[in-house]
Amino acid sequence: MVQLNYSGNKKHIFNAVAKANQILQNPAFYSEIGKFPPFHFSSLTPIEITKLMENSEWRITVRGAFKPIANASTSTHDLIKVSTINFSRDLATGVNTLIHETVHAIDLENGTLEFTHDGNSPDGQENTAPWRIGELAERIASGEPVLG
Ligand SMILES: [Zn+2]
Description:
Blueprint: E1 3-6, H1 11-24, H2 27-34, H3 46-55, E2 59-65, E3 72-76, E4 79-83, H4 91-109, H5 129-141
Parallel strand pairs: 1-2, 2-4
Antiparallel strand pairs: 3-4
Helix pairs in contact: 1-4, 2-3, 4-5
The chain binds zinc ion.
The site of zinc ion has 4 residues, from helix 4.
């Protein structure tokens, strides 16, 4: 399974990465993703996406960066940059951001973008892989029941 590595000194980022890694190792997380209806902007089914995430042995570096506007960004498959200014101090929200970016990284690992979203506003793109999978991780991180 894909895992995140953070070696910086920001406690809230460290805690969110630890929680995100816990979720990425939880088989129930992948089985819940597999129950989603098809995502928009995706040529792969939710189950095919879970297989990529589960079968990936990739270690993605999470690094704090000066980003005044975005929460985070991922432009290569091995690095997620999180904003040292905007990254949420709320654990579950931070986990959502990290898992959203992990979905992008897995997509990048496999070459052409096959399950992304269009633009950066959440409006009208709720049903895309990064948003849906990130939200699911947020619900798990906040202890909400996830059975769909
Ligand atoms: Zn995104």
